[in-house]
Amino acid sequence: MTSKSCVLNRCKPRPSRVTKLMAILFITATLILVVHMTFSYSVFKKHRHREVPITLISQSTVQVRNITQNFVKTSSMLVDDVFVKEPILGNAFTRHQIISCDAREEFSTDSKNRTFNPRINKTCPGRPPTLAGRFAPSTNLYTYHELAAMFPDVQDGGHYTPRTCMPAEKTAIIIPYRNRCRHLYTLLPNLIPMLMRQNVDFTIFVIEQSTLGSFNKGILFNAGYLEALKVDNYDCFILQDVDMIPIDDRNMYRCNKTGPVHFSPRVNKFKYKLHYSGLFGGVVGFTTEQFRLINGASNLYFGWGGEDDDLRNRAVNRKLPLLRKNFAYGIYDMVNHTGVKEEGWKVNPDRLKIYRTGRLRQHVDGLNSLVYNLTWVRTSALYTWIGIGFNATYITKTVPKQLRIGRRGDLSYLKANFTIIS
Ligand SMILES: *[C@@H]1O[C@H](CO)[C@@H](O)[C@H](O)[C@H]1NC(C)=O
Ligand SMILES: *[C@@H]1O[C@H](CO)[C@@H](O)[C@H](O)[C@H]1NC(C)=O
Ligand SMILES: *[C@@H]1O[C@H](CO)[C@@H](O)[C@H](O)[C@H]1NC(C)=O
Ligand SMILES: *[C@@H]1O[C@H](CO)[C@@H](O)[C@H](O)[C@H]1NC(C)=O
Ligand SMILES: *[C@@H]1O[C@H](CO)[C@@H](O)[C@H](O)[C@H]1NC(C)=O
Ligand SMILES: *[C@@H]1O[C@H](CO)[C@@H](O)[C@H](O)[C@H]1NC(C)=O
Ligand SMILES: *[C@@H]1O[C@H](CO)[C@@H](O)[C@H](O)[C@H]1NC(C)=O
Ligand SMILES: *[C@@H]1O[C@H](CO)[C@@H](O)[C@H](O)[C@H]1NC(C)=O
């Protein structure tokens, strides 16, 4: 007969020793669980406001494409909402608009899944009869969705190939990028139709520096080149500044096997005059072999200045003749920079010292010495978007100090010789 404990008029059996033991165990377990959960929550709370870590995509999986994938927020967002009411292309801009280039919006777009007509097997003409010549650039600021809808013939990842003829080369357009979505969204609706009229087989690569700190265009050129070659065997690389809007479609985006081409001698910013005779900035084109021959661009220029002149010298040092588009065709409007936050794009105070040692270190500074992380590869409707991370200190140290900084050396970049081509 079990004893009973009675409280008021409710009695229940007194627990046995086993039951007591189980109760103690249960209470202890519950206590441990509660303590654990409280601790976990405090850890969660502490980390909640941290940014989601960037998933590193291993280099062998570059081909994985999923544009519906959730966007991973990074330190460097495609947000550029600092401009209000200001002209974009000089005074031509009429439509004032704030645009949010939040990339989450971009990648909610459904993949275009269409079939294309078979291509006509006929070599594309050197200069298609459909060219318009000089054109007034579009200065409207479109949203991403408007842009995606405007170009149904551009395949995911920003690839386009003409159907009415066979182009002689496959071209990768490399656009170094960070926090300039207004510039990018102004460039695309001007560049894409022009390339289509020119029968260019192109793929647009937006190469974004995912690392904070000074912008390094040379690294982005090099990484863009290496990553693009994992996507396809491009013959021609056009290195295109995001703020340079072409305004004459006779400026054919083609490489030249003789030497690298400077496409942008005339820019509105310099009153459409050649800024100086050695100018090699803005838009330049290298065949895949030419860029490899010069070991790509220097990785050492952090911030603004020097890197374009250095790139030109690397071609000269490797005996590549410099070519330049003629003044009638090689003409651009630069997007007005007023109001754009441009941290990381400050004048590099060391640029001349680095410039002086360019020739000495060309063989140990460039494609063959670059160490970087592939932070993301995303396929958007109009371009392949690649994030590149690097450690500036580490990269700088890949080159011995005596080859990095010089007090003597040639500064005669103002007078390089170019051959004018059509
Ligand atoms: C793409 O990503 C979305 C969201 O992460 C997922 O639901 C979908 O299955 C993925 N599609 C493919 C083809 O991997
Ligand atoms: C850019 O816009 C400002 C006014 O917003 C104007 O003063 C300036 O001249 C413009 N720059 C160029 C290069 O058009
Ligand atoms: C694309 O279309 C093909 C053929 O119609 C189909 O087999 C495939 O599943 C489609 N892919 C997507 C992602 O809708
Ligand atoms: C195109 O035509 C040429 C001969 O006119 C032929 O040699 C070549 O194989 C054809 N190419 C394709 C892709 O059909
Ligand atoms: C390539 O450059 C040479 C000059 O060295 C020029 O004669 C030729 O027309 C150029 N080719 C193209 C396709 O521009
Ligand atoms: C690449 O990312 C890894 C993991 O976050 C990090 O340890 C490494 O330092 C990074 N390397 C470079 C070159 O940025
Ligand atoms: C960057 O590289 C330097 C030099 O190799 C190293 O000391 C530093 O820890 C690295 N930083 C990161 C964040 O990996
Ligand atoms: C440019 O060409 C001129 C005349 O051919 C020559 O005297 C000069 O040295 C050349 N300049 C450079 C930087 O090669």
Automatic annotation (TrEMBL):
Entry keyword set: Glycoprotein, Glycosyltransferase, Membrane, Signal-anchor, Transferase, Transmembrane, Transmembrane helix
Enzyme Commission number(s) from the entry: 2.4.1.-
Pfam families reported in the protein's UniProt record: Glyco_transf_7C, Glyco_transf_7N
Stretches assigned to the Galactosyltransferase N-terminal domain: 124-256
Top-rank taxon, per record: Eukaryota
Membrane disposition: Single-pass type II membrane protein
CDD domains associated with the record: b4GalT (cd00899)
Function: Catalyses the transfer of galactose onto proteins or lipids.
Family as reported in the entry's similarity comment: Belongs to the glycosyltransferase 7 family.
Protein name: Beta-1,4-galactosyltransferase
Organism the protein comes from: Lymnaea stagnalis
Lineage, opening ranks: Eukaryota, Metazoa, Spiralia, Lophotrochozoa, Mollusca
